[in-house]
Amino acid sequence: SWTIPKGNIETAFTASGSAAKEAFEEAGIKGQVIKPNVGFYEYKKHNRIHRVKVFLMTVSQELSQWPEQAFRTRKWVDVDTSLTLLARKKLKKLIKKVDFKTVSAI
Questions:
Q1: Bridge partners (DSSP) listed for residue 102
Q2: Among residues 40, 56, 77, 103, which is most buried (max CB within 10 A)?
């Protein structure tokens, strides 16, 4: 299933710092995380509810090699296409609320 980079907030990191770290590890991208987060969504995995804070990022580097590239594929798509690919309904709902025109002006 298709999703966005995400992971646990590690003790040494803020939520936005963890978002940047996960984007690097899972998608091989670096850049500036835009604060505050645009919201959150929840999902159930291993009988636990996980809450994911979602941040946008201005990407400045797209790396040819990254830590998790052996089992993750990076794919750039527009917002409308992402809504057809995303597996989690709550994430789709959150993405629909984001005003990307305002964000792209940052």
A1: none
A2: 56
